[in-house]
Amino acid sequence: MMNKKSVYVLPFAVILFLSLITTASTVGTRVDAESNSSTQNLTVYIQSLKSDNGGLFLVADEMDWYMGADAKKIFSEREPEAYAELGGPPDDYYIVNDSNTLTTYSVSDNATVTMQLFDHNGKPEDLDIHWDEKISLQQFIDSFADTDLIDLSQFPYHITIQNGVITSIVQQYIP
Length: 175
Fold this sequence. Notes:
Strand order of the largest sheet: 1-2-4-7-6
Order of helices and strands: HEEHHEEEHEE
Structural class: alpha+beta
Strand content: 35-45%
Low-confidence stretches: 4-35
Distance between the termini: 75 Å
Radius of gyration: 24 Å
Number of strands: 7
Helix content: 25-40%
């Protein structure tokens, strides 16, 4: 028969061993996540573009963009009645924007801009989709400010931030 001391020591040793394994695993995961923190990809609604002290700043509302199976899953959880009726999100994407918090980001002078739809010349009949069209940052600034034909703030954008500065802006077309 085991003595009373062994009965208490064995469970304590097992718990200690398991906690060491769990803690070591957590630390390893955290280091991996932090090592990639210099590049960040976000989806945002751009509220405004501002020039200040020779730099360009983008003010945006971050949101979550889901496509395919992920969109279907989130849509079914958040809107079960619509999911039951439609069987999934319209157009196979779903946007979640639970916060109206605005964040200001610095934009690199060399940031690339990729558009799907914007006003090329002010003529409604020429407004057409040009998939993944590269434009200059200045063209984007000018087009964003001109809301006569199309308001570019109504589109989501995927931005890439490297070392705290936006290096890429990609317009997400939405039907």
